[in-house]
Amino acid sequence: MKSCLACALGTYANMTGMTACLPCNAGSYGNVNGMATCTPCSKGYYGDTKGLTACSACNAGYFANSTGMTSCLPCSRGYYASSTGMTSCQACSRGHYGNANAMTTCLTCNAGYYANTYGMTSCLPCNTGYYAESKGMTSCVACSTGTYAHAEGRTSCLPCNPGYYGNTNGMASCLPCYAGSYTNSTGMTYCVRCPIGYYGNKEGMASCLPCNRGYYGNRVGMTSCLPCNAGYFANTTAMTSCLKCPPGSYENSEGSWICHGCSPGHYARNSGSISCTPCSKGYYSYSSWGTTCTQCEPGRIANTTGSRSCTSCPAGTVQPLPGKDVCNACPAGSYQSAAGQTHCNLCPVGTYQPNLDKEHVQPVHRSPMREPKVVQRNILYNILFGTLDSGGIV
């Protein structure tokens, strides 16, 4: 031959005197005739067979970070290659993740999850007390006061239930209202003390309880109500103070919602009494709820304390004064045939009465001589307590 032939595309002859051209090795190519050496594939490209006239670009999701590569490498998890011919992979941005090799794009974190660094292979769930309401969050948001998140991966926070409150951000659970306080709506940041007349006897109450009858609450925030003292009562619920028992009534125990009326024969002059006083001798009270006792009228007596009525002096006795407890026997020479009388009568002419109650009247001793009638009259008048009509004496 007059001359040597040029090696065809994809082949080469790197020595003199060669009788044939060699195909370019994998990872290289020959894109012109008569090449002495093949050109290695550029970064981002590869040649997987011999005799190539051009290298192929790495597919999306793959890369070639050096020349002469026979195959591309897949992007690792957390990385991606969105186009062909990439020489390196890019880390997934914050809020995104790559959970497999050879990804062409990263996935967005779901609501309730976040990715706070580059190249994450999975997203992290929001901690309790925090939330992420939208996708692609790089951090979670703390629950505001009055709300909480009791589980991980929450997309929103829950309002505190009635009886509970949240006073700081980022709470995983709400706090129960302390005894003596309450919240009656959701999302409260503080509890309200029970008003006067009410109480809260345990934690976590959504409403306070009214004080029962017989009890009262005189300040806010009470955990129990106070019993009314003896002499006082509370006849309705939610009382802020107790009432005094009115005159004519009493209460001798604590925690009462009614007062008892004084029984007949007894009285209570003042309010707030713990007991009734029995009527004194010579006095009586015939009805309940008495505030005073009444004097027995003349001719009647009450010989015991606590009398409900007066007793008429029996025949033969009298009582000229009111408020007495004994009857006076008629002295000798006088009589009283009716009961309940105030004075004795002198025995009429032709009659006599010899009996004499020596405890009340001393007998009269006459001299052998007959006293003048005026003396007799004076003696008998004195004997009869000055109550006799002298016209009846002979």
UniProtKB/TrEMBL annotation:
UniProt protein name: Tyrosine-protein kinase ephrin type A/B receptor-like domain-containing protein
Record field: transmembrane: none
Domain Tyrosine-protein kinase ephrin type A/B receptor-like: from-to ranges: 61-98, 129-163, 197-232, 326-354
InterPro entries (alphabetical): Furin_repeat (IPR006212), Growth_fac_rcpt_cys_sf (IPR009030), Tyr-kin_ephrin_A/B_rcpt-like (IPR011641)
PANTHER family given in the database record: INSULIN-LIKE GROWTH FACTOR BINDING PROTEIN,N-TERMINAL (PTHR46967), SUSHI, VON WILLEBRAND FACTOR TYPE A, EGF AND PENTRAXIN DOMAIN-CONTAINING PROTEIN 1-LIKE (PTHR46967:SF2)
Pfam families the record matches: Ephrin_rec_like
